[in-house]
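Quick one, tokens below. Sequence please?
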């Protein structure tokens, strides 16, 4: 009986270690000026640097677009999901800093790595 239990546990561990889990999904969006709806190029997009989804600060392209890669990891790294920051920040000189909370905007089905599309994100000019 013990042998069967050991074999079952071993197979369970092997099966889980090979499967990958979504730690965080990819995120994309388009930064626009709140007043005239024109794209805001060279805006900075970032998260808290101590979170497990930290990445180098991204800069929006000439059309205001940005894309952040998602991450899948094996089971032993699933605990990294606890340190994922749901808050993304957008900064641009002459504009107010904007915080976007990405938590629960889209749930992945079957633990699939999906892209969360934030659509147009308006930045207000600072005074």
């Amino acid at each position: 009986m013990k042998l069967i239990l050991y074999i079952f546990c071993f197979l369970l561990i092997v099966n889980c270690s090979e499967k990958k889990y979504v730690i965080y999904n990819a995120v994309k969006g388009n930064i626009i000026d709140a007043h005239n709806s024109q794209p805001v190029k060279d805006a900075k997009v970032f998260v808290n640097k101590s979170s497990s989804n930290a990445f180098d600060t991204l800069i929006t392209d000439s059309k205001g677009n940005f894309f952040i890669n998602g991450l899948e990891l094996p089971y032993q790294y699933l605990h990294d999901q606890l340190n994922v920051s749901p808050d993304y920040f957008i900064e641009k000189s002459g504009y107010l800093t904007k915080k976007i909370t990405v938590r629960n905007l889209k749930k992945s089905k079957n633990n699939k790595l999906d892209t969360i599309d934030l659509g147009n994100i308006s930045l207000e000019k600072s005074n």
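The longest helix spans residues 2-18. Residues 20-123 form a domain with the Immunoglobulin-like fold (CATH 2.60.40.10).
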